[in-house]
Design brief:
CATH superfamily of the largest domain: Flavodoxin domain
CATH class of the largest domain: Alpha Beta
Distance between the termini: 9 Å
Structural class: alpha/beta
Helix content: 40-55%
Length: 171
């Protein structure tokens, strides 16, 4: 089964998960910019990873562009975000309806290190926190955290191994 991991992130957490998955499953990793439609068509199994930026998947436009091709593939999507809140809303706003039902979706915890953010992102984060009324939520938004750990990919590795093994048995 021809397989690939496609990822798009901003500060490195999504790339780290993609690298761990690639090593665990012996699957190459690529960015969306490295693949043409012809390339995508030749893959049977695709793992896509994206971070979330202001409620949007960074890989969103790529998914929309290739939704018709992806619909006929075995596809896993992992979403890297800082908060477990609004997961369903993120998916509904970013995944085309016809594709949504056929995806295996995993949410993975991300990281937020204020000193590594661009000045624009730091500013936007602080502005967003000012709009939040709940003190605990506000505090959480502005607190550094790094929850990117290799064991977070275990469920994806398990499901992917099942997909890859099932295909090799059916051949």
């Amino acid at each position: 089964m021809k397989s690939v991991i496609i990822y798009k992130g901003k500060y490195g957490a999504t790339r780290q998960y993609a690298e761990w998955l690639g090593a665990a499953l012996h699957i190459p990793i690529k960015t969306p910019e490295e693949l043409s439609e012809a390339d995508i068509k030749m893959y049977d199994f695709i793992i896509m990873g994206s971070s979330v930026y202001i409620g949007k998947l960074l890989i969103r436009e790529w998914i929309k562009r290739y939704a018709g091709v992806l619909k006929n593939k075995k596809v896993i999507l992992f979403v890297v975000c800082g908060s477990g809140k609004a997961q369903e809303k993120i998916l509904k706003q970013n995944i085309p309806e016809g594709l949504f039902e056929s995806l295996h979706i995993f949410f993975l915890p991300g990281r937020l290190i204020q000193s590594k953010l661009s000045w624009k992102d730091r500013f936007m984060l602080r502005m967003g926190a000012m709009l939040v009324k709940d003190t605990e939520s506000k505090k959480f938004m502005l607190q550094d955290r790094d929850n990117v750990k290799e064991e977070n990919i275990n469920a994806i590795v398990s499901v992917s191994s099942d997909v890859l093994e099932a295909d090799s048995i059916s051949l």
